[in-house]
TrEMBL record, chains A, B:
Native species: Leeuwenhoekiella aequorea
Keyword annotations: Methyltransferase, Transferase
Residue ranges of every copy of the tRNA/rRNA methyltransferase SpoU type domain listed in the record: 96-232
Domain MRM3-like substrate binding: 5-81
InterPro entries: Alpha/beta_knot_MTases, MRM3-like_sub_bind, Ribosomal_eL30-like_sf, rRNA_Methyltransferase, SpoU_MeTrfase, tRNA_m1G_MTases_N
One BP term from GO: methylation
Pfam families: MRM3-like_sub_bind, SpoU_methylase
Alphabetical list of PANTHER family matching this protein: RRNA METHYLTRANSFERASE 3, RRNA METHYLTRANSFERASE 3, MITOCHONDRIAL
Protein known as: TrmH family RNA methyltransferase
Family: Belongs to the class IV-like SAM-binding methyltransferase superfamily. RNA methyltransferase TrmH family.
Biological classification of the source: Bacteria, Pseudomonadati, Bacteroidota, Flavobacteriia, Flavobacteriales
GO-annotated molecular function: RNA binding; RNA methyltransferase activity
Length: 238, 238
């Protein structure tokens, strides 16, 4: 049974200000919730239509109709949990770090977090105006991999200045990434979906790189998550 | 002014059976529509809130409210057009061909079409049960690049048998793509989002390849569009 105040709390968590006020975010689906339960994230409450979670003692069993009221998904996925927003642990400053400059699409951020997890990129640095990583759509797209990536929101300009590392940025007119020497320790910046990397941050870039275009000159740019995947793969393939 | 019968026609085009019955599909947004107008696709009708299309004589000017009634988007984008579903022209059977085995997510198919366009992959072959490429969400995700890629729906099994080409398939347990010899002329198969490549098609694969995982062993697989991007980039980088 879900109370009115619980419904109000949960639906409010679609908005960043309420997530911050309550220090909570939403995870949906059995598989996703299990990933978070295995991690250091702290469970706040768990609502499920059946007893899928034998290790969790404090479960609220709900009806499909109740789940529909609290779910952010068109097709609710059997279970919904609230977890506490963590303080990400101190980052190791080694290897490749991925930076995003005002990334706005939740699906893109979720995909990039999953990419970082796959390629063992421990640090994802987001500009302050990038989409919030605890947005329900981001969480849904990460498939649990957010539990294994350190995410920091900060002023990118200051952050880059403090690193003393080569700074790679993706630009349409950059040097082919296939012909670039790519170091193990570096910053790689991806830009906003519509406007790319902002002018202020572009000034900090020491190596402008691009993915060569093989097709027709009319081709739209690649989606930022796709471009990010190809660039990260190039850094990691050795 | 949009008539009731036009509203009925347009909204019916969210479903494949009505798209096939009428031979029409929907494109939204000025930029997207302009891409189609530049192509060989044949315009059926165009609805816009202002006169953005100076070259088109037969425009229906609509109000924002009317546009909202016919749009598939949460935030309608100033214009909506219907185009005729084309018969894709005969494919050149050279270079890399991308095959998808029961791909279901419209966003993934749209992203892969855009990827094909960027990397000049002229042939995208979809199994008969893959999501329809004229689904409005696919069209939205392709950013017009569907005008430059030949897409065929067919029985993949038969198609592969007829090609007499090396067949590469993405599998979790495949050989590292970074260590594989990748020919210019080949078939590359990507599988379904949940189940990967089906058993029947897997039997046809001559080269099982994978993207090595650098992170934690608990990591979920990569999204199929992301994996596709990295694999295609490996084929094309030379």
């Amino acid at each position: 049974m879900v109370s009115k105040s619980q419904i109000k709390l949960i639906t409010s968590l679609s908005q960043k200000k309420y997530r911050q006020q309550h220090g909570l975010f939403v995870v949906e689906g059995i598989k996703g919730i299990q990933e978070f339960l295995k991690s250091d994230f702290k469970l706040h409450s768990l609502f499920t239509v059946e007893g899928f979670f034998t290790d969790v003692t404090d479960i609220t069993v709900v009806s499909e109709t109740e789940l529909k009221k609290i779910s952010f998904l068109k097709t609710p996925q059997k279970a919904l949990a609230l977890f506490a927003i963590p303080i990400f642990k101190e980052k190791k400053k080694q290897g490749l770090q991925l930076l995003v400059d005002d990334l706005r699409d939740p699906g893109n951020l979720g995909t990039l977090i999953r990419l970082c997890d796959w390629f063992n990129i421990e640090n994802l640095i987001c500009s302050n105006h990038s989409v919030d990583c605890f947005n329900p759509k981001v969480i849904q797209a990460t498939m649990g991999s957010i539990t294994r990536v350190n995410i920091t929101y900060t002023d990118l300009n200051n952050y880059i200045s403090q690193q003393n590392l080569p700074v790679y940025g993706a630009f349409m007119d950059g040097v082919s990434v296939y012909e670039s020497q790519l170091p193990d320790n570096a910053l790689l910046i991806l830009g906003n979906e519509a406007n790319g990397i902002s002018d202020t941050i572009a000034e900090k870039v020491t190596h402008r790189i691009s993915i060569p275009q093989f097709g027709n000159a009319n081709t739209e740019s690649l989606n930022v998550a796709i471009a990010g995947a190809i660039l990260v793969s190039e850094f990691k393939r050795g």
